[in-house]
Structure formats: structure tokens, C-alpha cells
Q: What sequence folds into this?
């Protein structure tokens, strides 16, 4: 994404090129242009721009992609963590 | 209008005063979680059997955006039950998902309304919708068309071709600005529940209660919240660091340094340091909160950022508050 970049070397995205059939669906669904097609197979060209939304892994027809998908939201994680201690806030505050 | 399956509501592409007011209220968190429209099939213009079918969420702001953008076009609009959540967040939760899409196609009798077998979905919906499964279960082809609905008219005109620009995410000043009210509101709550008690304690800490000390401290806390929740989002690409908490901390430190520079005579150095620490860590915290509103932060990244910066914030805040309130015990 032009002008914005989050932390490097953290994304859990992995692509198994052996399994990939080169359908290109991951390129279609990725909002950050993480993939490209090389020699008839997908290839990760920009791992650090991956936001782990999971669209590619969900849509891959041969399960060649794995990613620990979720939403990168600090307040969501804090609320989840507090919920572990049975502390809950009203739902309409904070994020969606 | 009447279709093969019965009556379908025709909706206008014009947004009225109440729609605009409703959108504005939702941006300010007023009734935001119940700003919904009924799910189901709608008609925009007078679509025929071969008109495109768009799919969206039942958050009224999403629905309003689609119908106003598609004004003048003849399309079908299939609204999914996402419980008033926008497409992207609902896809993340799975409510804008394969199951709901398949169910809604069935309930609306879409296969009798249109002669083709194609659905146009926002690209951000792909995190919840598995295209091949929808095809298998309903016969409908899912096409992830564009990121933004604003690009859809052009997409339809150029023969359903997604140009590189249509799949390029942006996060410009205007796109960040509309998110600021919600960020500020969350921060303001903490002014009331954390800032006010701390400021009151600081007021007491000066031997007997000083209203001036109370207001000074409260305003400084408010300033810290504004730094983190308003200024950091607006200045996001300009601030140094990749972690949001660093961006917020830099801004908080700079702003508080500028404020305290002329006050070195009236406050002790220890107090100034403590205030700078409080403002810096509070600003960093609310800056970090903004990660959830951006379209590019990964959960692994946020987890790493929190692991590194939360202990620092908590430590700095704790020490600083202890210094500022030490007067309670010595007075």
C-alpha cells in the first residue's frame, strides 16, 4: 500500500508452491498485492505488506496457502484479553 | 417491482437529509450498532433479468453508499445479514460469509429473478466468502470486483475488468479523518474515567485541593488523548516509526515538550518529566488503538507491537503518576 507499511517479518503467510495450481485467485482477492504469478504458479513478492486477512487462504482451491488470519486491532485484542479475566465492556464502544 | 418470485423493493439512489444525518451520527458512534437495513434483494433503477447483482452488508452506511453510487444504473442489490457491520469487518467475523451468502441467495429466490449466474462482491468481502464453495452450492459465480464501490460504475462500463488501481488500497487524509470521531470518543471516555480521578488526586497532592491544579492536569490528559486519537491518525504517514505507539509517543513527547519548555520556572524538573511521561504514554496508547481502524495492520504485527510497547507505557505511566501524586503522602 503506497505510503504505508507496518511491521516487517511478522506475517504468518506461507505458500506451498508445489501444491499451487496457478489459478491466480489469490492475486484477485489480495488487497495488498502480496502475490504475483511466476512460471504458472503463485509467488509471494511482498510478504511484509500482508495484513493476514485470510482471503487468499480461504479462496485457494487446493489449500496451498496458510495464514494465521485475524483482525489487526489492538483494542479488540485488549478486550479479548480482559474478557479472559471476565472483564467486559459494552460492545458498541471501540472497534467493530 | 414484481419479479418471478414476487415483489422486490425498488430503492432510490438519492440520499435524503435523514440518510446523511444518520451516516454522520454513526460516524460519531450514535446508534452505530443498530444502523441497519433489512437483508434481502433490492432493485436499483429498473433492472432486468440480465442486470448485474451486487452484494453488500446490511450496515446502513454500506447500503447507502452502494445505492447512491449506483444511482442511474439498473442493478440488483443483495443485502446480507451482517448485523449492522460493514463488509470488511463482517468478512473478518464470517457474517459476510459463504454461509450467509448461500442462504440469502436461496431466500431471495435470486436464481428465478435473474437469468445469469454471476455475483459482484467487494474485494474486501473475500476474507469471508469462499468463491468456489458458493459456486458449488448455488451455481453462482462470485466475482470480486473492486475494493471501493466508487469504482464499480467504471468496472461495469469497461466490461467487468478490475484495473490495478481498483485493487489498490488507499488511506488518504479524508479516509482517515472520517474515522477520527470514533477514536476521539473512546479517548474521551478515558478522560472521564481515568483522567478526571487522576487530575483530582493531583489537585489534592498540592497540600490542599487546588482547582487550578485539577484543571491543568485534566487539560494535559485531554491533550494527550487528542494527540493519540486525533493528531496521530491525521499525521499518520508523516510520523516516524512503524509501530503506531511509537508514532503516538513521538507526537506526545514533542507536543508536551513544547508546552513545558516555557514553564521550567513554575514547575520542578521532576514534575515536568513526569507530565511528559504521562502525555507520551497516553498518546502512544490511543495511537496504538488506531491499528484496528486501518486497512494494513496484521494481527501478528499488532500482537508484537502490544507485547513490546504496553509494558513500557504502563511502566512509564505508573512511575510518572507516582511522582506527581507523591505530594499526597508528603503534604
A:
Amino acid at each position: 500500500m503506497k505510503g504505508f507499511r507496518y511491521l516487517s517479518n511478522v506475517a504468518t503467510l506461507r505458500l506451498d508452491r508445489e501444491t499451487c495450481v496457478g489459478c491466480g485467485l489469490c492475486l484477485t482477492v489480495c488487497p495488498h498485492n502480496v502475490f504475483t504469478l511466476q512460471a504458472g504458479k503463485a509467488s509471494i513478492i511482498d510478504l511484509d505488506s500482508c495484513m493476514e486477512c485470510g482471503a487468499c487462504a480461504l479462496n485457494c482451491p487446493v489449500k496451498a496457502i496458510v495464514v494465521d488470519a485475524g483482525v489487526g486491532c489492538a483494542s479488540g485484542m485488549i478486550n479479548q484479553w480482559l474478557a479472559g479475566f471476565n472483564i467486559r465492556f459494552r460492545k458498541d464502544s471501540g472497534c467493530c | 417491482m414484481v419479479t418471478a418470485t414476487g415483489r422486490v423493493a425498488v430503492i432510490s439512489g438519492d440520499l435524503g437529509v435523514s440518510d446523511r444525518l444518520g451516516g454522520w451520527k454513526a460516524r460519531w458512534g450514535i446508534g452505530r450498532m443498530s444502523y441497519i437495513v433489512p437483508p434481502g434483494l433490492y432493485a436499483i433503477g429498473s433492472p432486468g433479468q440480465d442486470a448485474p447483482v451486487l452484494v453488500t452488508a446490511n450496515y446502513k452506511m454500506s447500503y447507502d453508499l452502494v445505492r447512491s453510487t449506483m444511482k442511474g444504473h439498473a442493478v440488483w442489490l443483495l443485502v446480507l445479514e451482517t448485523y449492522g457491520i460493514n463488509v470488511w469487518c463482517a468478512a473478518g467475523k464470517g457474517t459476510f460469509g459463504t454461509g450467509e451468502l448461500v442462504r440469502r441467495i436461496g431466500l431471495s429466490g435470486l436464481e428465478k429473478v435473474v437469468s445469469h449466474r454471476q455475483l459482484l462482491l467487494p474485494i474486501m468481502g473475500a476474507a469471508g466468502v469462499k468463491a468456489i464453495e458458493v459456486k458449488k452450492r448455488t451455481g453462482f459465480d462470485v466475482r470480486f470486483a473492486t475494493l471501493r464501490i466508487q469504482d464499480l460504475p467504471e468496472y461495469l462500463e469497461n466490461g467487468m475488468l478490475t484495473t490495478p488501481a481498483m485493487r489498490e488500497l488507499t488511506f488518504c487524509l479524508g479516509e482517515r479523518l472520517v474515522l477520527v470521531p470514533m477514536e476521539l470518543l473512546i479517548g474521551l471516555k478515558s478522560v472521564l474515567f481515568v483522567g478526571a480521578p487522576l487530575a483530582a488526586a493531583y489537585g489534592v497532592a498540592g497540600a490542599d485541593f487546588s482547582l487550578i491544579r485539577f484543571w491543568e492536569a485534566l487539560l494535559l490528559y485531554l491533550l494527550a488523548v487528542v494527540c493519540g486519537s486525533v493528531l496521530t491518525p491525521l499525521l499518520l504517514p508523516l510520523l516516524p516509526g512503524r509501530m503506531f505507539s511509537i508514532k503516538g509517543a513521538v507526537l506526545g513527547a514533542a507536543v508536551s515538550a513544547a508546552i513545558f519548555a516555557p514553564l521550567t520556572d513554575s514547575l520542578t524538573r521532576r514534575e515536568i518529566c513526569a507530565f511528559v511521561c504521562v502525555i507520551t504514554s497516553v498518546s502512544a496508547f490511543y495511537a496504538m488503538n488506531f491499528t484496528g481502524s486501518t486497512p494494513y495492520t496484521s494481527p501478528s504485527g499488532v500482537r508484537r507491537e502490544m507485547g513490546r510497547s504496553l509494558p513500557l507505557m504502563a511502566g512509564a505511566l505508573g512511575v510518572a503518576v507516582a511522582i506527581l501524586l507523591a505530594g499526597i503522602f508528603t503534604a
Q: What stands out?
A: Chain B has two domains: 2-169, 174-330. The beta strands of chain B are 2-3, 6-7, 9-11, 40-44, 53-57, 75-80, 118-121, 141-144. The mean pLDDT of chain B is 93.
